[in-house]
Amino acid sequence: MAAVCRLFYLLLLSTFVALSGCDQSQSTSEKSPPQQTSVEDKQVLLALFPQKVSDSGWNQAGFTGVQTLSNELELNFIYLESVPFIDYEAFSALVRQQIEVNNVDIVMAHGGQYIDPVSRLARNFPRVNFIVNTNCPGNNANMGCLSFDWRELGLLTGTLAALKSETGKIGFIGGMQLPILEQMATGMRVGALDINPDVQLFEHYLTSWTDEVQAMAIAEQMLADGVDVISVNADPASRVIYPLLEKKGVAVIGRQLENYDSPPSTLLANVQLYTPRLIQYGFNQILKGRWQGKLYQFGIKDQVQEIHLESKALTPEQAQEFKQVYQKVVLGHLEVER
């Protein structure tokens, strides 16, 4: 409780400038991470990433968000890259050492692949607050999850795909078969069927976010099946997919392509995730002593996510229809059953 109170006072001193800081995340990402200090009264935050923080928009956004927040709240910030998640013993040995040596107060794991190892480790460190950036119920104690509303994003991308498709065949490629991506695919199916009851959704997942060979094979098979609009959520493996889809004239719905130097010319829409804001919402719960070890989920109305439609990617009539669906989602008049 003492640790929580100290963090709460730090929040007050920061005068609640976190959200404005998130809007400047692009410039912040260019700074070097703060050096670890031994000042005893500072709280210690440990962030875990599944790949290098520069490997994908997902990792870059997560790193920028947690680094910005750590600077504002004057936390000691430590991060580890390419942290294993399948081998629990390797994960536990690495993270346990960091917690014990650095007297860590908060652990943030950036990705759904960490649900199982974090839930197991959290039982051994009841004084530490654990955050996993994904969709999960938590442990009703010290481990909770922060999640975007993936069903909402799926519903809107499905609407777009069905409006754009001429063959009635649309695709979804996920980086791993995780609950959040399955939720997005479910939402995509619901949104697409509402536009075209005869639409077909081809849904495939990689066994690893980094398997470029498998990503290419799945994309090529979809093209052979006549799919003409594909939603891709598989960074960093998706980088090899985009040139192929562009060459074949296939419409692309990507994620965080604002981080790419040359997005595909066939881009239909870009899913934008404001990870710094999502992290801020979660930290607010800890700072106020309200972290309950449960799921905290936020969507478009919370300004943590949006879908940017490319100019002239749809006909004026199609664009208007999409706008109407988008507004219904924002107002809470349309959602996917949970």
- The CATH class name of the largest domain reads Alpha Beta
Task: Note the total helix count.
Answer: 12
Class by SSE composition: alpha/beta
Q: What number is the mean pLDDT?
A: 87
Overall 3D shape: globular
Whole-angstrom Rg: 20 Å
Fourth-level CATH superfamily of the largest domain: Response regulator
**Strands, count:** 12
The fraction of residues assigned to DSSP E strands is 15-25%
Might you state the CATH topology name of the largest domain?
Answer: Rossmann fold
Supply the number of structural domains. Answer: 2
What is the second-level CATH architecture of the largest domain?
3-Layer(aba) Sandwich
Give the SSE string. Answer: HHHEHEHEHEEHEHEHEHEEHEEH
Features:
338 residues, alpha/beta, Rossmann fold, 2 domains, six-stranded parallel sheet, 42% helix, disordered N terminus
What does this structure look like?
The protein has 338 residues and is α/β, with parallel strands linked by helices. The protein folds into 2 domains: 2-149 and 275-302, Rossmann fold; 150-272 and 306-330, 3-Layer(aba) Sandwich (Rossmann fold), CATH 3.40.50.2300. 42% of the residues lie in helices and 19% in strands. The chain contains 12 helices and 12 strands. It has helices at residues 2-13, 18-22, 25-28, 57-73, 88-102, 115-122, 150-164, 179-195, 212-224, 241-247, 275-287, 316-330, and strands spanning 44-48, 76-80, 106-109, 129-133, 143-148, 169-174, 200-205, 229-233, 251-255, 267-273, 295-298, 305-309. The chain has a 6-stranded parallel beta sheet, sandwiched between helices. The chain has a 6-stranded mixed beta sheet with strand order 7-6-8-9-10-12, with helices on both faces. Strand 1 (44-48), helix 4 and strand 2 form a beta-alpha-beta unit. Helix 7 runs parallel beside helix 8 and helix 7 runs antiparallel to helix 12. The longest helix is centred in the first third of the chain and has 17 residues, at 57-73. It is globular and about 60 Å long. Mean pLDDT is 87; it is low at 1-39.
